[in-house]
């Protein structure tokens, strides 16, 4: 099954919205709302877009698990041979619990603690992506204490502008991520001279929700210039990691297919004479984003002087992207309309004016109706919180005509189970 259009993933049959072979209304009836619904077929098709484009090459796809770290999602990808890009010790534990191969794990992030570094070293991960001289010294110190050699790459900052939201750019001089381009060679010399470190690769990541190939190619050329310089100095790399960040179509964006991105990167690698190295990418959103939807129910309609509000049972604590990034999310009615169409802001019950999921949407809805907020598989549940003492949603994965619960809805009692009263 291929998924080349948004309609393929969450599609209408006789007026009822489905995920694969299952009506979303039946999921709401069985599991309640809000609930995150994921398509197994769409998830795997998106991953295979990368894997097949890299077929026949020394290559590794490392899923950026911060996009969605559900154990079932990770396990499905691990079974496909995926590696994992992690940014915390907790994500390492999740990757291993889901059956991930530690030899396919790269550890990114600007603030790795000594305890996290120790756990990753003991697990024998593929590489630490170093983001500062201070971090190099910390990794070196922990490796020396454990009498191990830590495999390291340097995440260089190529100062390439991907023209995306300022909160999700990561490759500019002003960003906290990566090592300044001009300082990268000096850091490699320091790492190569250390008895406790082994230089294995180079890495960059320029941002998220990128919808053009050109920024990747520009960053690749900057990265390959460093590879050339390192080889000239006798520092030979095992892998070149081009990071992730490829966008999806939320509204009117036209991002390239993964195959187009990989083709462009491989062309640069081959032209520069580095086709013998392992090529790595770290996609997240483009693997899971379109595979997921947040299912929510309309609680009531409120007609104001200047705005109409559809108040639903999902909120900013369930889906943070609109409030945080002013992100556009697609909203669909789950069943045929029985009301007149009107323009609504879709908002939640949370006590914040920033608690909105969509603005100015023309919908024919009544209280009790179901809505699906689609393209919500990435940075939906992974950023969810318990603000206003709200339990996080359930999560289910649809596989053909079968629905699997992969996370139970949180109960209120579970939210304060770890708290205690003063005597």
Q: Could you explain the architecture of this structure?
A:
This protein has 423 residues and is α/β, with parallel strands linked by helices. Helices cover 29% and strands 26% of the residues. Helix 9 (214-232) links the parallel strand 11 (197-203) and strand 12 (239-241). Helix 6 (114-123) crosses helix 7 (133-146). The model is unreliable at 1-7 and 165-172 (pLDDT under 50).
Please state the structural category. Answer: alpha/beta
Distance between the termini: 60 Å
Number of strands: 21
Q: What is the radius of gyration computed over CA atoms, rounded to a whole number of angstroms? A: 23 Å
Mean pLDDT: 94
Q: How many helices?
A: 13
Largest sheet features: 9 strands, mixed
Principal-axes geometry comes out as: globular
Low-confidence runs of at least 5 consecutive residues: 1-7, 165-172
Helix content: 25-40%
In terms of quaternary structure, what is this?
Answer: single chain
Layout of helices and strands:
Layout (H helix, E strand, L loop, with lengths): L5 H4 E4 L2 E4 L2 E2 H8 L3 E5 H14 L5 E6 L6 H9 L3 E4 L2 H9 L7 E3 L6 H10 L3 E4 L2 H14 L3 E8 L21 E2 L3 H9 L4 E7 L10 H19 L6 E3 L16 H14 L6 E4 L3 H4 L3 E12 L4 E5 L8 H5 L4 E4 L8 E6 L8 E8 L6 E5 L19 E6 L2 E6 L4 H4 L8
Parallel strand pairs: 4-20, 5-6, 5-13, 6-7, 7-8, 8-9, 9-10, 9-11, 11-12, 12-13, 15-17
Antiparallel strand pairs: 1-2, 2-3, 4-14, 14-15, 14-19, 16-19, 17-18, 20-21
Helix pairs in contact: 3-10, 6-7, 9-10
In short:
With 423 residues, this protein is an alpha/beta fold.
Tag the structure with descriptive keywords.
423 residues; alpha/beta; nine-stranded mixed beta sheet; eight-stranded parallel β-barrel; 21 strands; 29% helix; disordered N terminus
